[in-house]
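JOB MANIFEST
job_type = single_chain_structure
chain_count = 1
residues = 518
[input]
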Amino acid sequence: MSNGQASALEAQESFDVKKEKVDMLHGKAVGLVGVLFLCVTGAAPMSAMLGNVPFGASAGNGLFMPGAFLLATIVLTIFSIGYAAMASRVSSVGGFYSYISLGLGRDVGMAAGMASFLSYSVFEASLYGLFAYFANSWLLSHFGINVSWIWLALFCVVLAGLFSHFDVQLSAKILGVALILELVMLSIFNFGVLMSPTANFDLAALNPLSAFTSLAETKSTWNGEEVTIAAGVAAVGIFMAFWSWVGFEMAPNYAEESVDPKRIIPRSLYYSVIGLGLFYILTSWCAVSAYPTEAEMVAKASKDSSNFFLTPLEQNVGKWASELMYFLILTSSFACGMAFHNTASRYAYSLGREGVFLRFLGKTHPTHKSPYTASMTQSVLAAIWLGLFAYFMGTDDPTAQAYVAVYTMLAILGTMLLLILQAIVSVAIIVYFRQNHPGEVNVIAGLIAPLISFVAQAYLVYLLVTNLATFGGAGAFGSNIPWIALAIVVWGFVWGLVLRVAAPETHAKIGRIVYNDA
């Protein structure tokens, strides 16, 4: 098939959003910086560092956590090569949903659409669990007020829904401010450790191959007593590093609202992956090096993880800095949840405007051009996820209920779905370019990079499933997370088959409405 014939076939298989009778989002509303704010905030640098580094160091690979972040930077940059090439060809608010549909067919695309929507939906609720945990502790320690975590989490749901109701530019500004404050505060932490006379920097910690070295059983002194820290599992540290990027892949979902999406979206992917990677490597290196010995570092990470960053920050910079960082954890977790809210809303909007799932979700606000019906629906869903945990587990223990249950368990479910999607989209990219643009992209972007990415993402899913108990995946919900994820994917695929038989015209539009901005 010639390139011209392939392009003609592709055109017949896609529907231009401008020619379809669907509500459109606010075109050309955000530039490169705006897209970066909307996506990188989803990665939540502060939440990622304060939450993932201590756990990865104490239960994974200890001193070699920075090497795990370097490894993740390399792998995700490779993933971005094929993903960016796809984004330069296809502009669609559907992201994974559209890419997988175009590469592997409508039924698999439908499964991806449902999985994408629900993964970001539970991510929002997850982050509000984290916010509620820290907010409860902050209010209790500073004002002696004990506010139930469920009300704090629901407050976030309402506030994020309110902000997301308006123009996407408002979300970009709010998330941009939150992101800048996070990066400035973490940079202050890094500077303080770099200037500290007691810091213990070891170049070996940066070796990506050392990331596969499990932490050995460690003996240390804690509160005047000798303690033994159990041996870690390297896979845990590696997974926590990759987990820290969740959110960067949302860039294609803003293609229709960005200026020149076929240039901006690929650039934003590279900038966010590499930029976050360099920052994560430095920050994690400073974090594990802030303590005189590895034994002291591991003991702190295991016994007092919430202060793993705060204690050296206070020692090296001052009390004011640790107080400010504690407060910024709240803004970070809220902003991250809001970023996921925006992405979940756009996946729901994409499904709705194609008529493949609840048409009312495909409406945009007459003034703000935001996907307001999808946004309101996502707010209701986030409230339901939180309400279910509160109903079955109670609201009197923020640590066990808001942090361990809501934040950790829902984040693991969302991450598993996301890793599955990234593995599938890697295959879809290979097939798409071979069928529609043979010879138009180099072999690295069209074959080698996506193939390496598929193997890496599949391996991460394996690590998550085999180490689920280490991540806290116990109990009725946690132990069944792989089955829940599988059920979501299968449900979406079956729904695609139903549409194929019952509504073939609708089935033809699955993942096919794209934005031709030329």
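[summary]
The CA atoms of residues 40 and 80 lie 14 Å apart.
Strands lie at 15-16, 218-222, 225-229, 513-514.
exit_status = 0
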